[in-house]
Design goal:
With about 850 residues, the protein is of the alpha+beta class. It contains 17 helices and 47 strands. It folds into 5 domains: about 200 residues, Galactose-binding domain-like (Jelly Rolls, Sandwich), CATH 2.60.120.260; about 110 residues, Immunoglobulins (Immunoglobulin-like, Sandwich), CATH 2.60.40; about 325 residues, Alpha-Beta Barrel (TIM Barrel); about 90 residues, Sandwich (Immunoglobulin-like); about 80 residues, Immunoglobulin-like. A 6-stranded antiparallel beta sheet has the order 4-3-5-11-8-9, covered by helices on one side. The protein has a 6-stranded parallel beta sheet with strand order 30-29-28-27-26-33, covered by helices on one side. A 5-stranded antiparallel beta sheet has the order 1-2-13-6-10, with no helix packed on it. It comes from Okibacterium fritillariae. GO terms for molecular function: beta-mannosidase activity.
């Protein structure tokens, strides 16, 4: 047990994370595990405790997922003892920051609480149950699978995706399995457990409502709930940037009563917080204290420290001549969103620590992202996540936790939803990186288009949450923060949710049925979801799957492909562009490259539509286990080629060649940086052997945050040999290519580039010189060492051109391995070898 105090605060916090044991109570427990008790980690989960004890196989490997599904069908018990002695405080609260999910808490044999919501914090008064010396604390968890099944009967069937009724329980939906996630419904104390002792008064909710007046005057209205154990006079004191104010709290309250006060602070000449790429991210320390009597007495009872940022954010959904806009405006400046969707970074979320989040956000920054959307089938993200985004200027769009299902609005769910929303709005609202609350993922769209209506038979399905409860709570607790009813969302319940002319859209027909060239047939206002599948990195596949032989359809590979008809969709989406290889390593490279090309194709088109289209949020940045999926970073944290494609296509400055009506081609130049861009646009048509066939130039003068389209003249743009020619547009060091035919139909030759490897201080420099036109040159360096990281991929070179890659690697390796054709990959290999 760890004991801490906050400065001179009279609140004593004892951390109750030690000495826990875990055992199964009932359910389909394997015979050799019955009556077995193992040490348990808190915070932790049943799966991770059993895994650490060596009692179950790793669910991430091979087909082990199916060997451990029994865990979610069982009831479990955690048990510990802790020592306690009277400390002069008159209030003692057990605080569980996260119980997953169907829990009964007992202290010294007495039931303290029964809980049914993973997403809430529970504060339980236990002063009358504590005894001198040893105290026994027991937490029993019911089977989440059995509870969800029974709850779905009790409240009545509501349509949902996949095979568990996750919509009947307030637990992370993806914990029951998803089209990228394993079915591993777990249980446990997944956040901190403490015993908090206090007297007189303590700080409950602290909500700093931050606004900015011109010119740069910051206002902070600090709304504070003071819980009191008696009617003594106390004072709330708040301070930020050297500005201090206090408000006395008086009046009689019953024991456990709450007094609500607001402390107003005004700060001149504040530095504004900006998204990355738009400015700095200054953060201000805000301290809130409750003291006994007047402030001069300085008898501190409790203290809270927060970091805030001063900025304004508006999400504009405004009718215009083209429909309804969807645009983020920060400090009066429109922001073109370069984002990705975020899912839980591990199927067992307690394994995600601050260092791991930091590494993942590093990768988001490598990909030039400025926004992450926290998807509604997971969690309200951690304080660590939000603090890191505050520091880095990464905006956060937070879904409320409703995804791909209809939800009952009757009790007990309505009250649970309200309680969890109040908890999490209050916890997250101080963060300047939080720019949008969103009611749900795909549920309004699902009701409109997925046939829910007749299956619901008139039952509630969640609309009351999205249009009434949630916006009302955001308005009450976090006024001024933007709210949207769902994603996709047109801005009005009277307009179809996924209308490309109105608001945000999800574009999934291209992956599911159509193919990625059809992205150019859509001119959306904002794309909140779209994506293309690709396999995990090769070293991740080798670690997770032991199939021999390993094929795209071998048992372990299929177990790590969760999408319906996923491999068929991979194949259907490949063969129009690249040939389907029979060799597994070539298949892996082809699918990885096609994923990167599909997303590049889409984003280049969407960015060329600016300002009609004001952002894309690709599905998805990360994975929660090693799986074939839409992620740019796989389940072991390794970057796939897609991450490098995003690095290129999300750069501040983008040059792309796009088709226009009548068959013409135009060079679209996007300047999303802070500086004007003046240069020359060179448009050149080459034969594949490097011969210049035609060229032209045009002057470029672009203001910051603007774009322009320059049509290529017919004599330059029109190919005489489409299979053997390429159009290139160059602006300074930025360039774009237009190939007139699909790669598989082109005359691209087998490449034999010269590869030179040099040892440098933190790894290797790999210099590649092209002997012929080389398309999509990449170094799959994880094949040499799983920890190796390359600085770039997907580089196209004309004959004779050279590119140097930097490979970060701590250990020394055989330099020739970095030059191997299985590491140095190109599109040429796939096409020329196929011929």
């Amino acid at each position: 047990m760890t004991l801490t105090t906050a400065g001179l605060s009279t609140v004593i916090t004892r951390t109750l994370h030690d000495g826990w044991s875990l055992r199964a109570l009932r359910g389909p427990v394997p015979a050799d595990l019955r009556e077995v008790s193992v040490p348990a980690r808190v915070p932790g989960l049943v799966h991770t405790d059993l895994l650490e004890a060596g009692l179950i196989p790793d669910p991430y490997l091979d087909r082990n997922e199916q060997k451990v599904t029994w865990i979610g069908e069982c009831d479990w018990e955690y048990r510990t003892t802790f020592e306690w002695h009277a400390d002069g405080r008159d209030r003692h609260d057990l605080v569980f920051e996260g119980l997953d999910t169907v829990a009964t808490v007992l202290l010294n044999g007495q039931t303290v609480a029964s809980t049914r919501n993973q997403h809430r914090t529970y504060r339980l008064p236990v002063a009358e149950l504590l005894v001198e010396g040893d105290n026994e604390l027991v937490v029993r968890f019911g089977s989440p699978v059995a509870f969800a099944d029974q709850a779905s009967l009790d409240i009545g069937y509501r349509p949902h995706t996949y095979f568990h009724p996750f919509n009947a329980i307030r637990k992370a939906a993806c914990n029951f399995g998803w089209d990228w996630g394993l079915d591993a419904a777990s249980a446990g104390m997944w956040k901190a457990v403490t015993l908090q002792s206090w007297q007189g008064a303590r700080l409950g909710a602290v909500r700093p409502i931050v606004t900015v007046d011109a010119p740069a005057r910051g206002r902070v209205s600090v709304h504070v709930d003071v819980e009191r154990s008696d009617d003594r006079a106390v004072t709330v004191v708040a301070e930020v940037a050297g500005v201090r104010a206090e408000v006395p709290v008086t009046g009689t309250v019953p024991a456990g009563g709450v007094s609500a006060v607001a402390v107003e602070l005004e700060v001149d000449d504040v530095d504004l917080w900006w998204p990355r790429g738009f400015g700095e991210q200054p953060l201000y320390d805000l301290t809130v204290r409750v003291v006994d009597g007047a402030p001069t007495d300085d008898a501190e009872l409790d203290i809270r420290a927060l970091r805030i940022g001063f900025r304004t954010v508006v999400v504009e959904l405004e009718p215009d001549a083209e429909g309804t806009s969807f645009r983020f405006v920060v400090n009066g400046q429109p922001v073109w969103v370069r984002g990705a969707n975020w899912i839980p970074d591990d199927a067992f979320v307690t394994r995600v620590d601050r260092a791991r989040l930091s590494a993942r956000l590093d990768q988001a920054e490598i990909a030039n992202m400025n926004l992450l959307r926290i998807w509604g089938g997971g969690y309200y993200e951690s304080d660590d996540f939000y603090e890191l985004c505050d520091e880095r200027g990464i905006m956060v769009w937070q879904d409320f936790l409703f995804a791909c299902a209809s939800y009952a609005e009757e009790e007990p769910l309505w009250s649970e939803v309200e309680a969890e929303a109040r908890d999490n709005i209050t916890r997250l609202m101080p963060h300047p990186s939080l720019v949008l609350w969103n009611g749900n993922n795909e549920n309004i769209w699902g009701f409109e288009e997925w046939g829910w209506g007749k299956r619901l038979q008139g039952r509630t399905w969640g609309l009351g949450y999205y249009l009434d409860l949630l916006p009302r709570l955001v308005s009450e607790l976090d006024p001024g923060r933007a709210y949207t009813a769902g994603s996709p969302w047109s801005g009005s319940i009277d307009i179809p949710a996924n209308d490309p002319d109105h608001g945000s859209v999800h574009l999934w027909e291209h992956w599911n049925r159509v193919d990625y060239p059809a992205y150019r047939d859509v001119s959306p206002r904002f794309v909140a979801e779209f994506g293309w599948q690709g396999p995990a990195t090769w070293s991740t596949i080798e670690r997770a799957i032991s199939d021999s032989p390993l094929t795209p359809e071998s048992p372990g590979m299929i177990a790590h492909q969760k999408a319906t008809d996923g491999n068929d969709k991979l194949t259907d989406g490949l063969v129009a562009h690249l040939p389907l290889p029979d060799d597994t390593e070539d298949w892996h490279w082809a699918m990885s490259l096609n994923q990167a090309n599909a997303v590049t194709y889409a984003i280049e088109h969407f960015r060329s539509l600016s300002p009609r289209c004001m952002g894309t949020v690709v599905w998805q940045l990360n994975d929660c286990w090693p799986v074939t999926s839409w992620a740019a970073v796989d389940g072991y944290g390794r970057a796939k080629p897609l991450l490098y494609a995003l690095k290129h296509v999300y750069a501040d400055r983008l040059v792309t060649i796009q088709p226009r009506e009548g068959g013409s081609l135009a060079v679209s130049v996007v300047n999303d940086g802070p500086d004007a861009w003046a240069d020359t646009v060179e448009i050149t048509r080459f034969a594949f052997d490097g011969t210049v066939l035609a060229s032209s130039t045009a002057a470029l003068a672009l203001e910051p945050r603007s774009s322009i389209s320059i049509e290529a003249t017919t004599d330059v743009a029109q190919a005489t040999d489409p299979a053997g020619e390429v159009l290139m547009a160059t602006v300074g060091s930025d360039r774009a290519f237009w190939f007139y035919t699909e790669c598989r139909d082109s005359s691209i030759e087998a490449a034999n580039p010269r590869v030179e490897v040099e040892r440098v201080s933190d790894g290797y420099a790999v210099t590649v010189t092209a002997d012929v036109l080389v398309r999509d040159l990449a170094l799959l360096v994880d094949k040499v060492s799983p920890g190796a990281v390359v600085d770039d991929m997907l580089v196209t070179l004309l004959p004779g051109e050279t590119h140097t890659f930097h490979v970060r690697l701590d250990a020394e390796v055989d330099a020739s391995a970095l030059a191997s054709p299985r590491v140095v990959r190109t599109a040429n290999q796939l096409v020329a070898d196929w011929r």
